[in-house]
Write a structure and sequence with these properties.
It is a single chain. By secondary structure, the chain is mostly helical. The protein has one domain (about 35-140). It is built from six helices and no strands. It has helices at about 5-25, 40-65, 75-100, 100-105, 115-120, 130-140. Helix 2 crosses helix 3 and helix 3 crosses helix 6 (about 130-140). The longest helix has 29 residues, at about 40-65. The radius of gyration is 22 Å and the shape is elongated. The termini are far apart. The relative contact order is 0.12.
Length: about 140
C-alpha cells in the first residue's frame, strides 16, 4: 500500500500545478478604449441604474393600481439600486472596452443595448438580488 503522505503531497502538487496553468491561461482584461477612466465608467453605471429604476417604479405603481391598491408600500428603491448597479457596472466596463468616449457620445446609450439584453437574458453581467429575482419571476410567467 502506498504511503498516504506521499499520495497527499502528489495530489497537492497536482492541484497547485493545474491551478497555476489555469490562471496563466486566463485572458487578460481588455484595455479601456480612448477617453475612459474609472470615474467615467461609474458615471455610466449610475446612469444605467437610473435608466432601469424609473421604468421599474412606474411598472410597480401601475401593477398596484391595476390590483386596486391605492395605498401601497413604496417601491424598494435602494434594494433595486443595490441589485442593478453591479450589473450596470459590468456593462459599463464592457462598453468602455468596446468603444471610445467619442464613439459612445455619437451612438448614445443604444450602443450598450446588446450588453444589457445579454445580461437581462441571464448572460454575462446578469443581475442578482432584487432585479435578478424580478426577472426570474417574469420568465417563470412566460
Amino acid at each position: 500500500m502506498a504511503n498516504p503522505s506521499k499520495i497527499l503531497a502528489l495530489a497537492l502538487a497536482t492541484v497547485l500545478f493545474c491551478t497555476a496553468a489555469v490562471a496563466a491561461d486566463k485572458p487578460a482584461e481588455k484595455p479601456l478604449k480612448e477617453g475612459w477612466d474609472r470615474k467615467q465608467i461609474k458615471v455610466f453605471a449610475y446612469a444605467c441604474t437610473d435608466g432601469l429604476l424609473q421604468p421599474a417604479i412606474r411598472d410597480y405603481n401601475a401593477a398596484a393600481l391595476a390590483d386596486g391598491v391605492a395605498m401601497h408600500k413604496p417601491f424598494p428603491e435602494q434594494a433595486f439600486r443595490d441589485s442593478a448597479f453591479p450589473m450596470c457596472l459590468c456593462i459599463s466596463e464592457r462598453v468602455a472596452q468596446t468603444w471610445t468616449v467619442p464613439e459612445m457620445e455619437k451612438m448614445g446609450m443604444q450602443s450598450a443595448r446588446p450588453f444589457i439584453d445579454e445580461a437581462l437574458a441571464g448572460g454575462r453581467c446578469k443581475p442578482a438580488g432584487m432585479l435578478g429575482d424580478i426577472l426570474k419571476k417574469q420568465k417563470e410567467k412566460l
